[in-house]
Amino acid sequence: MNILNIAVLSGDGIGPEIIEQAVNVLQSVQEKYSINFDFKFADIGGVAYKNHGHPLPQTTIDIAQNAQAILFGAVGDWKYDNLERHLRPEQAILGLRKHFELFANFRPAKLYSELAHTSTLKPEIVENLDILIIRELNGDVYFGQPRGMRIAPDGLFAGSEEGFDTMRYSKPEVERIAHIAFQAAQKRNKKLCSVDKANVLETSQLWRNVMIEISSQYPDVELSHMYVDNAAMQLVKAPKAFDVIVTGNLFGDILSDQASMLCGSIGMLASASINKNGFGLYEPSHGSAPDIAGKNIANPLATILSAAMMLRFSFGLPHIADDIEQAIQKTLEQGLRTSDIYSKLTNEKLVGTQEIGQRVIENLYNL
Ligand code: IPM
Ligand code: MG
Description:
Isopropylmalate Dehydrogenase; 2 domains; 14 strands; binds 3-isopropylmalic acid
């Protein structure tokens, strides 16, 4: 039987405990559907720095290279906040995105109806919300050169210390994310909103021009444009007006965190980062939350949903991904809640990381 190789990079903080639940779910998938996974575990982030002197050691890159997909937990811990930038845990995820050219980041924001009241917005604003943010992940000010610290050579404050970064996008970079976004919109409600800051930035002007140019290849998709400040406002005013949003690396970072709150908790948001060959890294949208690590209170559902995305995108097993999502739906219907989505309603039961993961598995078996 075909073996599917998965590199499992748990990372720091709550990473190991949420990954444990996702791996448990995948192990039950092996039994139920007669699929063979081969899990290879490797250090990443702060723990990798501690054990190997670097947040993204070559041994970890090699393991990821030999796998067909990466399941990623989270990185970062305040213990490492004072390290030089290139040794900080966050460099591990940025390094993986760059190394594997994972330029297309899918961040779905879907609200489970059971959680409508846990959103900070009124239930009627977010009920049935189902939007997809596609964030370009390899370019923009995140990676643009030159960047650095220096003594300002000119300007009003010439001679003072300054930090500088470069926001840049090339046409092919925008074209490839545009195609991904139009094709994703074709599979959904055929509405694509491109978010930029074309009233101020040259990069955004190019971004907008390219989106318009590529749109002629997708006449069935309705393309609109929105400035990022307005998009931030519309996301809380009328989020359901969106279907697919496509945007650059920095704006996508911010808007996807914002969108997560529409869904009650960032603990519910999965993500996939894909390259042109379909190789992908799957990770929850949230961070490593070191303050709650090791307490069995973190919500593992975003990680389990990310594993489902892996089955859908990298392994062509959409029926199993659907089943996992249904098992999660059932778990929420049964009232199980981790503390981030618990609101003390009478039908709700506050449970821990392991208990909710276990229930997802039971529900998956009993579908
Ligand atoms: C994210 C995170 C990362 C980012 C950090 C950890 C570097 O916030 O995945 O959204 O800024 O992209
Ligand atoms: Mg972020």
